[in-house]
Amino acid sequence: DRGAYPYYMLKEIDEQPAVLHRIQETYLQDSGIPVLDQEMLNAMAKADRIYIVGAGTSYHAGLVGQTLFEKLAQVPTQAVLASEFAYTDPILSKHPFFIFLTQSGETADSRQVLVRVNEEWQAPSLTITNVENSTLYREASYQLLLQAGPEIAVASTKAYTAQIAVEAVVAKALGTRKQVPAADAFDLQHELSLAANAIQAIVDDKAQIKTVAHKDLATTRNAFYIGRGVDYFVALEAALKLKEISYIQAEGFASGELKHGTIALIEDQTPVIALITQARTASHTRGNIQEVQSRGAQVLTIVSENLAKTSDQLVIPSISELLMPLISVVPAQLLAYYASLERGYNVDQPRNLAKSVTVE
Ligand code: M6R
């Protein structure tokens, strides 16, 4: 029931702080130590490489997971597109472990990979899903639930943030199990509380984002999101949100790649939304902003507080850089929502799309 909300998508965006709290309660002890199946962690600890399989938004959450597993558990990790991986002959590592990210648990492309994992590669697997007893839940060796509550809008929002939070729990648990110092030092309990508060502050201030959507996205034909590292991964997700419900031709780019081709697309007034949450690359992305600005782009910045300058528009609270995607994606979700509304579309049921994609 969407109560007083005009669309489920807005309700689901607003629910994200509560979802993070539920994940904390379910998977972390008060002391912050993750409570996960030891047998699963033992199997993961033997892996020399983790493959994270997903489609669409779930693939984008997998890209963020790559960074989480490499930093916190020091395991080489690769996010792969289910629809590609299912039909290639990858040279797998000796001891692979597969993580399936799927909100619905029914995505046919992802299932196709799981069938190969079970029959051909005979490797251990974990499905992280929102739907208990779904196909991918049942067929994997281990399973964890997203605790996000039903997601009704076709555009996935709270499932994405829940996927990242659960990946962080697993990465922290695995890192602790392997005695990786970065995992011990990472106060996930605290960071998730900070993330929930930060998201709450952003959703409480929606009016600001609505104004920006009205100004920059009401009539534009195209739009670009740019960023580096995990900001690039969020740029991909942000662009997908905009495409699928506002029908604006939107692309997410690694900002360093602009001058290798994409910048040719920038015209007077083209909206370019830059994500800056990583200290190491902030000045590089700022350089890219200048390049597009000098070609007439209408630039909007989404920047974490600790890296912000007075000229930045959407300043978001800063927490651990590893978990900034939980926060920086929220203004992008809201921008897509308001752009869709501005253009008069049915936000929850975009054309040509189904909530769960059960054909390959
Ligand atoms: O249920 P799944 O997470 O496996 O679904 C994967 C994609 O179909 C899904 O994330 C899709 O990209 C969303 N509509 C994006 O908002």
UniProtKB/TrEMBL annotation:
State the top-level EC class. Answer: transferase
What GO MF annotations does this protein's record show? carbohydrate derivative binding; glutamine-fructose-6-phosphate transaminase (isomerizing) activity
Where does it reside?
Cytoplasm
Active site at K355
Does Thylakoid count among this protein's keywords?
Answer: no
GO cellular component, alphabetical, reads: cytosol
Q: How does it assemble?
A: Homodimer.
Q: What is this protein called?
A: Glutamine--fructose-6-phosphate aminotransferase [isomerizing]
What is the scientific name of the source organism? Pediococcus cellicola
What would be the name of the gene that encodes this protein? Answer: glmS
